[in-house]
Amino acid sequence: MSSTQSLYRNEESSADRLCERILNKQAKVGIIGLGYVGLPLALAFAENGFSTTGFDVDDAKVQSLQQGASYIGHIPDALIIKQIEQKRFQPTGYFAKLREMDVVVVCVPTPLDAHREPDLSFIRDTAEAISVVLRPGQLVVLESTTYPGTTEEVMLPILERSELKCPPAAYSVIGNEVQNESEVESDFFLAFSPEREDPGNKQTERSMIPKVVGGVNGTSARAAQALYAQVFHVTVLVSGSRVAEMTKILENTYRCVNIALVNELKLLCMRAGINLWEVIEAAKTKPFGFNAFYPGPGLGGHCIPVDPFYLSWKAKEFEFTTRFIELAGEINTAMPDHVVEGVAAALDQRGKPLSRSRILILGVAYKRDVDDTRESPALRIIDILQKRGATVEYNDPYVPYLAKMRKYDLRLTSAPLGSDSLKQFDCVLIVTDHSSYDYSLIVKESLLVIDTRNATGKVREGRDKIVHL
Ligand SMILES: NC(=O)c1ccc[n+]([C@@H]2O[C@H](COP(=O)([O-])OP(=O)(O)OC[C@H]3O[C@@H](n4cnc5c(N)ncnc54)[C@H](O)[C@@H]3O)[C@@H](O)[C@H]2O)c1
To answer: Which of 57, 237, 292, 294 has the greatest CB tally within 10 Å of its CB?
Structure first.
């Protein structure tokens, strides 16, 4: 989109040829991992005129895309069908085709394993799949969120099994351009560029989110910057892949720690009889030095509950303990238990034991207006409530059923939401504040509403039925 710095030197190198193909939109782009990050990115490259191939190991996803069917709520089928018909987007499970790509962008999962340590198996598998087809002049970019060092220490050695080299070399950045570059001969190019999408955010267009890019060496950085400048309005070049990796972890750790802070303050304010939501609204009026974060029933999603622990794991290598991260994790993971205790106490006050109560959970997605339930606190809350003997149902307009997951086997179907059905529950527990819910009506028709998100903050009638947790 924006013009990029010229890469041409006197002698045409493979980097020059690659950048020429990028600038002419002749470069073939391959995206590995067609999930919440990879699929929209693939479509963005296709929409911007690049022949884009999407690779995934999940045959069901590939087949669904080949038929033009989206599995992500906010991506309409029509968008996929259009790009397939215009032959700009080809989903495939045939990884040998990676060799035909000029650029390969990796968007595979980076979860925690059973011991809450980084699980880099998806990145390693992908790097191995690339290494067997890698050819000179290709650019590989990792987008998966991970600890600083992954691109150089994990991806690079696997890719170099191909016998092609991409030597790490220092460079600096001045004026968003590579400067003071050490001269190295790179057969292929390797960079890291974090994904910063904010699911459910309809205000910020994806292409308007500045794209941070850091290369393993200066040539890799320039090639990756040239690539992303075709799709994003602003690129932010940094002086290495480690800096780019750390940038993403800083952003998510900042959120995680600040959410823990307001969660802790919420517990204090509840004891002190102060409405923290009102406090935050008042504090927000300060025009500088305060960013609002909100308390809730616990952290969810693929990123905030997971990413900081990638950093705390890596910190051990330097005999360093990331105390803020550990403390934030402790506070945030205790929130679902706190919610259940609050539900039990509110029911108790109405003479109803939790074990004989019917509870309706509103919203099981991890955040407002998305269909993603990964790490959602709702799952843990349902699990604890069931273990304590309550009968639990849920409603979520974005999540028609809860299938078996790695941690939970709840197998529930979203219950219909109506005036009659609400009255049948001893308690309606708002876990995710989807904007399509009519909160006034929900309060009017329910016996007791427990609100973990201040969704009912503006409801005027029936306030005696609302308990804020
Ligand atoms: N979801 C978000 O909002 C978000 C935001 C920023 C960053 N991230 C990061 O982006 C990365 C991807 O997250 P996501 O939400 O898209 O995950 P996802 O689970 O939605 O998608 C990952 C895809 O990769 C595929 N896959 C797994 N192993 C593969 C392999 N070896 N080869 C090819 N495909 C493979 C899976 O089948 C899946 O379709 C993670 O590191 C995540 O932390 C996610």
So the answer is: 237
Of all protein residues, the one whose alpha carbon is nearest to atom 20 of ligand 1 is 35
Report the separation in Å between the CA atom of 37 and the middle of ligand 1, taken as the mean of its atom positions.
Answer: 6
Q: In sequence order, what DSSP letters do the residues of 247-310 get, joined into one string?
A: HHHHHHHHHHHHHHHHHHHHHHHHHHT--HHHHHHHHTTSSSS-------S---SSSTTTHHHH
Q: What is the architecture, at CATH level 2, of domain 14-239? A: 3-Layer(aba) Sandwich (3.40)
Span from the CA of 109 to the centroid of ligand 1 (angstroms): 4
Q: How confident is the model at residue 351 (pLDDT cuts 50, 70, 90)?
A: very high
Q: What is the DSSP string of 438-459?
A: -HHHHHHH-S-EEESS-TTTT-
Cβ neighbors of 193 (< 8 A, separation 6 or more) are 141, 142, 143, 211, 212, 213, 214, 224, 228, 244
303 included as an active-site residue = yes
Question: Which residue among the candidates 19, 269, 303, 427 is catalytic per the annotation?
Answer: 303
- Give ranges for CATH 3.40.50.720 in the chain: 14-239, 259-468
Q: Which amino acid is at 220?
A: S
Nearest in space to 137 (alpha carbons), one of 20, 41, 240, 228: 20
The pick from 31, 32, 36 for probing ligand 1's pocket by mutation, whose C-beta has the most ligand atoms within 8 angstroms, reads 36
The CATH topology of domain 259-468 is: Rossmann fold (3.40.50)
What letter would DSSP give residue 228? Answer: H
Contact 42, 32 (CB under 8 A): no
> Average pLDDT over the chain, rounded to whole?
94
The CA–CA distances, whole Å, from 394 to 38, 130, 204, 358, 363 equal 30, 43, 30, 11, 7
Contacts of 153 (CB under 8 A, 6+ apart): none
**Full-model pTM:** 0.92
**Span 31-53, mean pLDDT?**
97
Q: How far is the CA of 400 from the centre of ligand 1 (A)?
A: 22
Structure confidence at residue 275 (pLDDT): 94
Q: What is the dihedral of CA 78, 84, 89, 90, to 10 degrees?
A: 130
pLDDT of residue 8: 46
Q: Report the percent of the chain where pLDDT is more than 90.
A: 87
Task: Tell me the per-residue pLDDT of 313-343, one tens digit each, with 9 for 90 and over.
Answer: 999 999 999 999 999 999 999 999 999 999 9
Residue 19 clears pLDDT 70, i.e. is over it:
yes
